[in-house]
Amino acid sequence: EKGGFGSFMDKEIHDQPQAVGDTLLGRTDLQGDLVLDDLRIDEAVLRTVDKIVVIACGTAAYAGHVAKYAIEHWCRIPVEVELAHEFRYRDPVVNEKTLVVAITQSGETMDTLMAVRHAREQGAKVISIVNTHGSTIPRESDAVLYTHAGPEIAVASTKAFLSQITAAYLLGLYLAQLRGNKFPDEIAEIYEALRAMPAKIQEVIDRGGRVREIARWMADTSSVLFLGRHVGFPVAMEGALKLKELAYIHAEGFAAGELKHGPIALIEPGQPVFVVVPSPRGRDSLHSKVISNIQEIRARGARTLVIAEDGDDAVLPFADEVFWVPQCPTLLSPLLTVVPLQIFACELATARGLDVDQPRNLAKSVTVE
Ligand code: F6R
C-alpha cells in the first residue's frame, strides 16, 4: 500500500503533484472560466460579501494564511484567518455579509465544526474546503469545494495541505471573476501558472536528495528555526509544525521581519535556521530584506539552510546550503517551498528511528474540542 515507500508520509509527499493536479482538474470550461460545480451558493451573496473569515486548525490554518495573501490581492476583500477554537469562543463579528471558509482535511475536526455552526448561527454563509467525502463539515456547510488529494493516511498532513492551498486559489480566482475585480485575461494567466505547478512540485521532489542527506546528518539536532516573509511566513510555520510533530524537536517559525523584534536573541553559533526567500522577481524590497536577515543571522553563527528560487544567486554568499525551487508567481510559491521542509521533517524523524506515520500523542482526526 505504501507503494514501495518507507512510510505513508513519504508516499503522500510523492503524491502531491497528482493531488494538486486532481484538485485543479475539470474546473474550467472551454473559455477558460472557472467552474466550481460543487459550489452551491447564491452568486448574489458572493458578490456582496464584505469580509472573508477563514477558520481551521493546524496545518489547514496555514493553508488559510496562504489563502489570505492570494484572495486579498486578487479580490480586494478583507480576509481574516483564525484558529477555529479561538474564533468560536471570543464573540467574533460575523454576519450575513461575512463569508466563512472552513478548511479541513478530515471534515470531522470538532473545533472547526463548532466554529462553522457558530458562524451560521450569526447568519454567515459557510463554504468548506474538505478532502473527505461524506464527512460532517461539508454536510453542515452552505457549499463545499472538495480537494481531490485522495485518502491521507499519515497523521501529518502533506498532500492535503497542498490541495487545500490549491482549492483556496481556485476560490479566490472564482470570486475575483464573479466580482469583476480582475480582468479575465489576468485570471486566465494565473490559472495557466497554476496548471504548471504539478510539474514544478515534481521537480522539487526529484531534487529532494540533498535535503534528505542534510536531514540525516542533523538527526541529533535539538532545535531548528524557520523564517519566512509574505507567503513564506505560513510556510515557515508549517515547516516548524512538521518537525515538532514528527521528530519531537523544538522548532519555531517566525516572520523574518520579526527577527529584530526578539527572536534574533535565539541565534547562537551552530543554530540551524531555514529561510524561505521570496522571489527576486516579486517585490524586490522583500527579497533584499530577507537576504539581509540571512546575512544578520549568519554573522551571529547561524547555519543557514536557504530555500530559494532557481537563478537567485544573491543568496549564495550567505547560505550554508541552498535548496532550489523552480520559478513561479510569488503567490503560488508555497506549493513549492514547503516541499523541502516536508521532506526534511520526514527524513529526519525516520533517521531518529521514529514512526513518522503515527507520531506520539496525535490522532489523524481530532473529534473532541
Ligand atoms: C498537522 C496536522 C494537523 C491538522 C489539523 C486539522 O500535520 O495534520 O495540524 O492539519 O488537526 O485537521 P483537519 O484538516 O482534518 O481539520
Automatic annotation (TrEMBL):
Q: Name one GO cellular component term.
A: cytosol
Q: Which reaction does it catalyse?
A: D-fructose 6-phosphate + L-glutamine = D-glucosamine 6-phosphate + L-glutamate
Q: Does the keyword NADP apply?
A: no
Q: What is its main location?
A: cytoplasm
Active site location: K364 (for fru-6p isomerization activity)
Q: Which GO terms describe its biological process?
A: carbohydrate metabolic process; fructose 6-phosphate metabolic process; protein N-linked glycosylation; UDP-N-acetylglucosamine metabolic process
Enzyme superclass (EC) = transferase
Q: Function, please?
A: Catalyzes the first step in hexosamine metabolism, converting fructose-6P into glucosamine-6P using glutamine as a nitrogen source.
Protein name (record): Glutamine--fructose-6-phosphate aminotransferase [isomerizing]
- Native species of this protein? Sanguibacter suaedae
Protein's gene:
glmS
